[in-house]
Write a structure and sequence with these properties.
The protein is built from no helices and three strands. The protein is mainly beta and 55 residues long. It has a domain of 34 residues. Strand 2 and strand 3 form a beta hairpin.
């Protein structure tokens, strides 16, 4: 059985992962959403913002 870790709830931090862009869409307002696969095996859409850097 797992134990609840209340001391971690609400903490903030940074996650660094390798990503591969699978698709990208630009909205009328100029914002860009990218569909990515990350090094943990997750696949998801996210906004291309200042927190994401590409090689």
């Amino acid at each position: 059985m797992s134990k609840q870790r209340n001391n971690l709830i609400g903490q903030t931090g940074t996650v660094t992962r390798q990503i591969t862009v699978l698709d990208a869409k630009e909205a009328d307002d100029g914002s860009i959403d990218i569909y990515v696969s990350d090094s943990m095996g997750n696949v998801f859409w996210t906004e291309m913002d200042g927190d994401i850097s590409l090689d």
